Amino acid sequence: MAVPPSAPLPCSPFYLRRQAPCPQCSWGMEEKAAAGAGCREPPGPPRAAAIPCFGISVDQDDILPGALRLIRELRPHWKPQQVRTKRFTDGITNKLVACYVEEDMQDCVLVRVYGERTELLVDRENEVRNFQLLRAHGCAPKLYCTFQNGLCYEYMRGMALGPEHIREPRLFSLSADVPKVEVLERELAWLKEHLPQLDSPVVFCHNDLLCKNIIYDSTKGHVRFIDYEYAGYNYQAFDIGNHFNEFAGVNEVDYCWYPARETQLQWLRYYLQAQKGMAVTPREVERLYVQVNKFALASHFFWALWALIQSQFSTIDFNFLRYAVIRFNQYFKVKPQVSALELPK
C-alpha cells in the first residue's frame, strides 16, 4: 500500500481501517452499526494490534539496502554486520527476501516488495486488512510493518508445496481439527491421574482387538486372536474398552455401533464368569462396566496419537489424519458422561 512521502514516520495506523462499509460482507456493516452506536470497537472478530508503517521505498532491483533499513527499525538489537539474507525466487508478482541472524532462522523477517504497478490489480489496503484479520484468528503469520511499496512479516517455517504435494490426501485433510499440544498434555495428565484409581487389574492384553484380529472357527466353536504386535501387560479394562471402541469399525467409522449398556453388561457378565469359573454378582459386572468405559477414553487417546504419528511416516494408503481427528472427537464427545460414572459402593 502506497503511503505519501510527507506522512510522518511511523504514521497513524488508522489508515488501515475501512473508510466505508463493504456491501458484500457483514464486517463492514457491523463497523457502521457500531460507529453509529458510539462503540469503541465493532463486534465480531478481535481487531489486531496496530502496525507501524514506514515512509521507506525499497528498490526492486536492489532490495538489500532498503531491507536493511527496515530491519534497523524492526530489530534494532541486531548488529548490521551479522544480518544474513536469503532471496526467494518462486514469486511471480512480488520480490521477497528473508533477513535473520541465527542459523536456525527462529527469528526471521520477510521483506516483500510489491511488483511494479501491481496496485492497478491488487487492493493493497484490503490485503493488509485481510492479513490482520487472518492473524487475529491464528491463520496467518505476524505482520510487522508496512512501507511505501511493500510489507514485512513473520517467516513461517516449513516447506513450500509443489504440484506433486497438494494431491496428497494427508495434506488436505483435517489437521486444523487436531487438538493443540497443550490440550493433549492436559488430557494425558487427567487420564494418568484418574484411571489408576479405578483399580483395574493388570493382565496380559492383546491391545488391538479390532474385528479383523479375531478369528472364529465355526466348526470347532473356537475364537482365536491374531496379530500380537501391540500385545503386552496392560490394564484389563483398557483391552475390553479398546475392543468395544472397535465395534465402530476402522475404514468407515461409526460410533453408533458402540455397544449399548445392556449389550456391554451381557458381554461383561460372560467375560467375568469365564474368568472366575462361577456366577458373578451384578455389582461385579457394574464395576467392570464403569472401568471399561473410562478406559475406553484412553483407547481413543492412544490410537489418535498413533494415527498422528502414522500420518507423518506411513506409506500405507489410509487417511491417518482423518482417523486421528475422529478418535479425538469421540474422546471429547463421550468424556463428560463417562467421567460422571462412579464405581458401585
What report would you give on this structure?
With 345 residues, the chain is α+β, with helices and mostly antiparallel strands. Helix content is 37%, strand content 13%. The chain contains eight helices and ten strands. The protein has helices at 26-36, 63-74, 124-136, 181-194, 236-245, 261-276, 282-313, 320-339; strands at 53-54, 84-88, 95-100, 108-113, 143-147, 150-154, 202-205, 214-217, 222-225, 232-235. A six-stranded mixed beta sheet has the order 1-5-6-4-3-2, with helices on both faces. A two-stranded antiparallel ribbon has the order 7-10. Strand 2 and strand 3 (95-100) form a beta hairpin. The model is unreliable at 1-47 (pLDDT under 50).
Beta content: 5-15%
Tell me the quaternary state.
single chain
Helical residue percent band: 25-40%
Cα Rg: 29 Å
Compute the number of helices. 8
Mean pLDDT: 82
Largest sheet: 6 strands, mixed
Summarize the helices and strands and which ones pair or pack.
Layout: H1 26-36, E1 53-54, H2 63-74, E2 84-88, E3 95-100, E4 108-113, H3 124-136, E5 143-147, E6 150-154, H4 181-194, E7 202-205, E8 214-217, E9 222-225, E10 232-235, H5 236-245, H6 261-276, H7 282-313, H8 320-339
Parallel strand pairs: 1-5
Antiparallel strand pairs: 2-3, 3-4, 4-6, 5-6, 7-10, 8-9
